[in-house]
Amino acid sequence: MLSWIAALLAGILTAHLAQRWCFPYFWRDALFLTRVMRYGARLEFYKRSSRIVTVVDRFVQQAQRIPEKAFLIYEGVTHSYGELEERSNRVARVFEDAVKKGDTVALLMSNEPDFISVWFGFCKLGCAVAFLNTNIKSRSLLHCFNCCGAKLLVVGADLLETLEDIIPSLQEDRIEVWCLTRESPRPGVRSLLDKMESASQEPIPAERRSVRCLKTPTLYIFTSGTTGLPKAAVITHLQSLKAAGGFWAYSATGSDVIYTPLPLYHSAASLVGIGGTIELGATCVLKKKFSASQFWHDCRKHNVTIFQYIGEVCRYLCNQPVAGNEKDHRVRMGVGNGLRLDVWREFLGRFGEIRMCEIYGSTEGNLCFMNHVGKIGAVGRSNFFYKLIFKYDLVKYDLVREEPVRDHNGFCQHVQKGETGLLLSKICSQSPFFGYAGSKQLTEKKILRDVFVKGDTYFNTGDLMAEDEDNFICFKDRVGDTFRWKGENVATTEVTEILGLVDFIQEANVYGVQVPGNEGRAGMAAVIVRPECTFDGKKLFNHVLKELPSYARPLFIRLQESMEMTSTFKQQKFALVESGFNPSSVSDPLYILDHSEKSYIPLTPSIYDGIVNAQHKV
């Protein structure tokens, strides 16, 4: 008997050691996948029944269950679930006869509690809501309305002046403009706050917002792309519910306090942040705008346990002067994306062993990776079972031709383990791609067909990734006409079109270059000056300051006499990106955007050295 027990224990020990050696992440993978599958089972139940519970339905449920609990804390004021429920009901009552179920309305607001009140108020009327980026300018704003077909706009009081140039155009198109003020701020703009205060707080019947299909659009979130103007990514109820499960998948609970300093018009803050807070029944500390100097003070003041980030947020925090109480906080988890490996290590060293949970996924994409293990530098983790659920592949990519490499049969080629390749995600019933509103061409450009067999279709993420021997996935770079700077996607075609409006510019080629010590890529433009003109740094400075948001303004200008083109007559960017902006190695004249001079000034070797040594800020 004793020998049998000893043999059993020895077998168990051997199996345990074998598991630890050969499958070190087995139990963590199993636990995480179990949570993901539990959440997925709920969504599958919704698909197969008429009992679809949307994010707004979940909010109503939580407001009934925990009406007195803090939902939002904003600028020191606490707003309970019940209070936000009643306020969103007032918004719905104001517009219940003005809009129909299925209409689209637009929202141009900074972070504030009424962003959510207005958003949910229209959702309770069965409307889809288009979130407008508060940085985009007049020309792009008009394009956004054409994309999503919105016939009503609600604008925050602090953003009304950004519409001055286009209000006549909106009125011509019969688009109603409402402002969150108590009195009409100007002719043609209606006030909303006074109407809300006098409206009933009784809920609109649930039938008005009910949906029978998870693929019904609920939001339009605008993302920069290769077309040059913002694209309206269609966000369905299915996508919003998936995003709302992010915190839960990372084992967050209703007792957590979540800090959200990111803009609500982005999917990270709205879908993952607000949606995730609601799913848990937790509390969200909403910041109007990220402040590195106030970040840890806010976390200590409100007992924050989880914060949302993009890579730039963590870098800004690491750039702050060292303080003695940096580890004096209750933060245990960060959830976000784009955290650079060196910043990740420095962040943990300075601020404590915070579990950094990277999430990879674009607003419009059909694939998500989550680094549930927390390995530094990885955006996600895969395994055999994950690949059964989510069909993705890494394929060889030609950086010069800017297209996937295909074999003699016309099919894409897989990369080897550890090799960098273009990430593609199969489009199927489990992972649908809903595309963009306004044009089928925009959607088609993101689809690759006949990838491995005739007739298959894949979503082209536009991202170069690598998967190591342990199945950790690492982000390497972006391809195509979009790069990322200051946490925002920059469409090179849009910037090129804006630069083309300057009278002395004949042709422009915009691309992103790496700047030491900074996340993403900074904007740079190779420019050909018209023969009869000369380069005018002040004129160009004033133009980009007026027409482009700060993150999209080219920091560097390179004057050229001719542009290199590809065999398909596309502007060649690869060589320009590789050569960068070092005046010692680039023979063409170089300029840098200088706010103190209010001009583009010559980029000298001393300025370049200052940038490399982090003495000259960009």
Structural overview:
With 618 residues, the chain is of the alpha/beta class. The chain has 3 domains: 42-244, Rossmann fold (3-Layer(aba) Sandwich); 378-478, Luciferase, Domain 3 (Luciferase, domain 3, Roll); 482-612, GMP Synthetase, Chain A, domain 3 (2-Layer Sandwich). The protein is built from 20 helices and 31 strands. It has an 8-stranded mixed β-sheet with strand order 2-1-11-10-12-13-14-15. Helix 13 (311-318) links the parallel strand 12 (306-310) and strand 13 (333-337). Helix 4 (81-95) packs across helix 5 (113-123) and helix 13 crosses helix 14. The longest helix is centred in the first third of the chain and has 23 residues, at 26-48. The protein is globular. The mean pLDDT is 90.
Topology:
Elements (H helix, E strand, L loop, with lengths): L1 H21 L3 H23 L6 H11 L4 E5 L2 E4 H15 L8 E5 L4 H11 L4 E4 L6 H11 L3 E4 L11 H6 L3 E4 L9 E3 L1 H6 L18 E7 L7 E6 H8 L1 H4 L7 E4 L6 H14 L2 E4 L8 H7 L4 E5 H8 L14 E5 L3 H11 L3 E6 L8 E2 L9 E2 L2 H6 L2 E4 L1 E2 L4 E2 L16 E6 L9 E2 L2 H5 L2 E3 L7 E11 L4 E7 L3 E4 L2 E4 H8 L5 E9 L8 E8 L7 H11 L8 E4 L14 H6 L10 E5 L4 E4 L2 H8 L6
Parallel strand pairs: 1-11, 3-4, 3-5, 4-8, 5-6, 6-7, 10-11, 10-12, 12-13, 13-14, 28-29
Antiparallel strand pairs: 1-2, 8-9, 9-21, 14-15, 16-24, 17-20, 18-19, 20-23, 22-23, 23-24, 25-26, 27-28, 29-30, 30-31
Helix pairs in contact: 3-4, 4-5, 9-11, 13-14
Subcellular location: Cell membrane
Membrane topology: Multi-pass membrane protein
InterPro entries: AMP-bd_C, AMP-bd_C_sf, AMP-binding_CS, AMP-dep_synth/lig_dom, ANL_N_sf
